[in-house]
Amino acid sequence: LKRLSHYAAFNVERWFFPFVTKWLDNLAEQTLEWVANAVRADTFEPPAPSDDAAGPAHSTSVTDLFSAIYQQLESIMDLGWSNDVQNAAFFQKFSKSVNRAIEQYCDALGTSELKPDPSTGKQQWNILASSSKQSNGPKDITLESCVKLCNIEHAVKKLEEMSKLMNVANLTQTTRDYRATLAPMRRKSRQKEEQKPSEDDDDEEVHGAFKVQIAYAENIKPVTTAGLANPYVTIRVPDGTVVPPPDPEDLSNAVAPTTMMGSAGRALPAGGPAAAAVVLNGSACELARTRVVYDSVNPSWDETFMLLLPPVTRLDVLVYSRNMLTSDELCGRATLDLARHTRLRRKLSDHQTHDVFTDADPQGRVLLRLTLEGEEEDVNFWFRRSRERLNRTKDDLVRALSSR
């Protein structure tokens, strides 16, 4: 078709672009099925080694999951798309779907390893019977737990191989170059529509990639009868935060020059008119949540989250104590003021990592390591987020095994 269109002055990519985009959107909805099928069929036992060599230490679920992912990747690469910007948009959607699959797979691996036994409310780990799978070694560390660790290591390896195959660095540079060409037009459009005399006024709100490491807390408010707590931290945006609709000129909606134009002369998204803004409330405002540390008022989490912030001027840091019988109790609240003229915003503007102690009300403090990267969503962002989730799950599993 592409060869025929070359001689017939017919742009086949222009016509197939919305269909490929729709296929990638549907692909994102299939990730739950990928993970569910892979985990359901897995016994979490390594395959039997052959006579001449030792077999792999990982089980079938991680292999099945990445087989499904690679099959879709090959379909995208086989398109041979000539428009670099649109091609980068395809891989951006694909990498977001991969991140969703990784997130769900890590949740599935941690279901029986990282969650406490609800029947006790103490720091009891849901330990499966090891007699059927492991005759020697510690009875509280099963073969299944070790295989899950090997699965994570294999997933990290496959993710790195995929990154090299896709040439993520080149795709990311294409994205940044494209957005750099749009920046002057966006700035001029905002100034005209909002009648702002200064181009710096639109920097009042923070948005884009924001890296948060929740390190530890000190002197958390005790809430149990033993004078301790079961603390965990959540980071939220304020209720009523507005997530603006996708920019029709952004990379994910990049279209050929011959595409239909809107009434204002701007290219319309392939799927039709621009989507409406979304208002976040309740549980939708939560961006990150750490694991629970039981029986401590000086907990250490050391967990890293890669967040994609909507336009906000502050973030809420909440410390709760897990209660297995009633609702979780609030132990402390703090606010990160990210408005433009604040001291914290000025510190973060150098895009380096800064240690920030947040004083919780009524008592205690939490150490956060913050990096305001300022970049928008791209392929590299989703790969970094996937790697960090895998490493965080690995650390949690190792910590759980060590505690046993």
Fold and architecture overview:
- The protein is of the alpha+beta class.
- The chain has helices at 2-7, 12-29, 31-40, 60-77, 84-110, 143-166, 168-194, 343-348, 379-403, and strands at 206-218, 231-236, 241-243, 278-280, 286-289, 300-312, 314-321, 329-337, 354-359, 365-372.
- Strands 6-1-10-9 form a four-stranded antiparallel beta sheet.
- A hairpin with a 7-residue loop joins strand 7 and strand 8.
- The longest helix has 27 residues, at 84-110.
- The protein is globular, with a radius of gyration of 24 Å.
What is the helix fraction of residues, given as a range? 25-40%
Order of helices and strands: HHHHHHHEEEEEEEEHEEH
Task: Give the structural class.
Answer: alpha+beta
Strand order of the largest sheet: 6-1-10-9
Mean of all residue-level pLDDT scores: 79
Strand content: 15-25%
The 3D shape can be described as: globular
Number of helical elements:
9
How many beta strands in the DSSP annotation? 10
Largest sheet: 4 strands, antiparallel
